[in-house]
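RECORD TYPE: inverse folding
INPUT: structure tokens
STRUCTURE:
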């Protein structure tokens, strides 16, 4: 495996981690707070990518690049964030939408930086205007990536819940067998067996 391939895989890991964190921040029920949280996560992603590609990172320039490059994406995110102001259901619908858009924005930003660095670009010659089209294309793809990550996380959570339920059911069956054995041996009465069984099943 070449050094470039290893580095690119590392970059992919950095980007995916920040997509997940951005999606989590997008679920924050308070509008504007989620917005700034995502921006902070994206800035950290750029910082880590710069370190990976041996680039000198400057926070002020990084913030300017994020603002310039993600302008349209952030505008869409901001519009969706307003949904959270709707009492009750607004925070749920807005949160889910913001999670996906936040993940998509981070994906697009990370992919643009990775491509720029992989092709010999530096942090100092990064031109947001020139790379805007690429960001917009990656943003659309990023929505699908974020949706897929969301589905994967839901499947993992459901599998964990089912495994926990199965484990609990197995323990209950084992305990019922133990009670039946105690009753058979005459160590507990029929009434005691029935009472203990009800308690066990109730738990």
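DESIGNED SEQUENCE:
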């Amino acid at each position: 495996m070449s050094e470039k391939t290893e580095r690119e895989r590392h970059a992919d890991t950095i980007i995916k981690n920040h997509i997940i964190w951005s999606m989590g921040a997008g679920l924050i029920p308070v509008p504007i707070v989620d917005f700034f949280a995502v921006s902070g996560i994206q800035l950290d992603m750029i910082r880590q990518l710069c370190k990976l590609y041996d680039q000198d990172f400057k926070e002020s320039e990084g913030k300017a690049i994020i603002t310039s490059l993600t302008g349209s994406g952030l505008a869409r995110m901001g519009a969706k964030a307003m949904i959270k102001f709707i009492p009750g259901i607004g925070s749920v619908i807005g949160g889910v939408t913001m999670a996906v858009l936040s993940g998509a924005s981070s994906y697009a930003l990370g992919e643009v930086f990775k491509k720029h660095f992989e092709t010999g670009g530096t942090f100092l010659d990064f031109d947001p205007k020139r790379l805007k089209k690429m960001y917009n294309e990656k943003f659309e793809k990023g929505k699908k990536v974020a949706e897929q990550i969301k589905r994967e996380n839901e499947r993992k959570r459901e599998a964990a819940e089912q495994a926990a339920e199965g484990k609990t059911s197995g323990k209950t069956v084992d305990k019922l067998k133990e009670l039946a054995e105690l009753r058979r041996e005459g160590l507990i009465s029929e009434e005691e067996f029935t009472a203990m069984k009800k308690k066990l099943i109730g738990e």
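NOTES: The chain has two domains: 3-157, 161-202.
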